[in-house]
Amino acid sequence: MDYDFWNNCWLRPTQPFHLSQAHHFLVKYYQQYFDGKDKVLLPLCGKTRDLLFLSDQKIDAVGVEFNQHAVEEFWKESGIRPEITKVDNGVRYDAAHIHLWLSDFFQLHKKDTGSFQLIFDRAAIVALPLELRHKYASHLESFLSPDGQILLVTMDYDPKEMSGPPFCISERDLHELFPHAEITELDRHSILDSHPRWKELELSYLNEILYKIRLKH
Ligand SMILES: C[S@@+](CC[C@H](N)C(=O)[O-])C[C@H]1O[C@@H](n2cnc3c(N)ncnc32)[C@H](O)[C@@H]1O
């Protein structure tokens, strides 16, 4: 696990992946996929405002992030004072509808969080190197309830222009990572204008693609 990479990333004043509002796909697809769910898992969540968006809708947002600075910034910026509990695999921060685990995602299990009808992976799988992605995909699946699904956002750019993270993950890669799943592309949009970093790299294109992943039983 590349702790140093992420620790250095969180020492910088801004992070290219962090958005100042809830993610476009979460807002756009909220009614169709999120509305009515009791809780949603957000793995590798950084300090995403998606946690606040979901909690505002009275959905329990369960985030997992291993960088302490990111977790502390989340609470500082949100102005919420959580209850803090030391647990075997890290520290859990609880507020009304937000449960944020300061933990390595691979150390957290369904017995800790319960299962989920919905997982929202945004900038999570694309943050992981190839050698961890199979382990991550099966770990993610282990949190799903039998009727559950994953909404997963990948990145698409010309790999000659950037090496990642974020890594490029194709639909074909997703079929290899989730061999027992039905995978449907729902949407895509360009994020070239979302952060000066992408402009600096002079990328010709940079898209986020939203997939729905359902396990076949
Ligand atoms: C690209 S960022 C995305 C953050 C968030 N999903 C968002 O949309 O803003 C990836 C995050 O994963 C965290 N991370 C990487 N590996 C992790 C692991 N094994 N367990 C928990 N967090 C991890 C990093 O510290 C970083 O904050």
Automatic annotation (TrEMBL):
<dbReference type="InterPro" id="IPR029063">
    <property type="entry name" value="SAM-dependent_MTases_sf"/>
</dbReference>
<comment type="similarity">
    <text>Belongs to the class I-like SAM-binding methyltransferase superfamily. TPMT family.</text>
</comment>
<keyword id="KW-0489">Methyltransferase</keyword>
<dbReference type="GO" id="GO:0005737">
    <property type="term" value="C:cytoplasm"/>
</dbReference>
<dbReference type="Pfam" id="PF05724">
    <property type="entry name" value="TPMT"/>
</dbReference>
<feature type="binding site">
    <location>
        <position position="44"/>
    </location>
    <ligand>
        <name>S-adenosyl-L-methionine</name>
    </ligand>
</feature>
<keyword id="KW-0949">S-adenosyl-L-methionine</keyword>
<feature type="binding site">
    <location>
        <position position="122"/>
    </location>
    <ligand>
        <name>S-adenosyl-L-methionine</name>
    </ligand>
</feature>
<dbReference type="GO" id="GO:0032259">
    <property type="term" value="P:methylation"/>
</dbReference>
<dbReference type="InterPro" id="IPR025835">
    <property type="entry name" value="Thiopurine_S-MeTrfase"/>
</dbReference>
<dbReference type="InterPro" id="IPR008854">
    <property type="entry name" value="TPMT"/>
</dbReference>
<protein>
    <recommendedName>
        <fullName>Thiopurine S-methyltransferase</fullName>
        <ecNumber>2.1.1.67</ecNumber>
    </recommendedName>
</protein>
<feature type="binding site">
    <location>
        <position position="10"/>
    </location>
    <ligand>
        <name>S-adenosyl-L-methionine</name>
    </ligand>
</feature>
<dbReference type="GO" id="GO:0008119">
    <property type="term" value="F:thiopurine S-methyltransferase activity"/>
</dbReference>
<keyword id="KW-0963">Cytoplasm</keyword>
<feature type="binding site">
    <location>
        <position position="65"/>
    </location>
    <ligand>
        <name>S-adenosyl-L-methionine</name>
    </ligand>
</feature>
<keyword id="KW-0808">Transferase</keyword>
